[in-house]
Model the fold of this input.
Amino acid sequence: MTTQVSIFNGPNLNLLGQRQPEIYGSDSLQDVENSCKSMADSIGLKIDFRQTNYEGKLVDWIQEARGVSAGIIINPAAYSHTSVAILDALNAFEGPVVEVHISNIHKREEFRHHSYVSKRADAVIAGCGVDGYAMGLQHMHRLLK
Ligand code: DQA
Done:
């Protein structure tokens, strides 16, 4: 059976390509999903790619990934900086976690410098644009070997 990796995206990432393109670039979330799919195919992984604007939905999906997905790649977006609930859910997940941010959160406003999710993440990729997702998948592949 092909190993599955969940790729979860938080609030406002549905507007990728339209929202602040000077920060997040011009690719849409569909483009990101397509490039993750090609990367996953080339390294022999299956992906479950999702986006929601709701914190509780992310918590539900992280819980549901237990025993189903081998690893989680997550861009929690603004919830990175606020959500203990997402951190707790990730702490109950047994596999590796890779946190992705399209922008370099450390170069931006002070309130973006702290991420609760980073307390759990095995790796954090920030500032590589949307390429960070495919990089995250490659790293996940290594972690799962
Ligand atoms: C983001 C960075 C967050 O601070 C912001 O709230 C986002 C996107 C990123 O991918 O760079 O929505 O996670």
In short: The chain is about 35% helix and 20% strand. The mean pLDDT is 98. The helical segments are 21-24, 29-43, 55-65, 84-91, 131-144. Residues 21 and 30 are 15 Å apart (CA to CA).
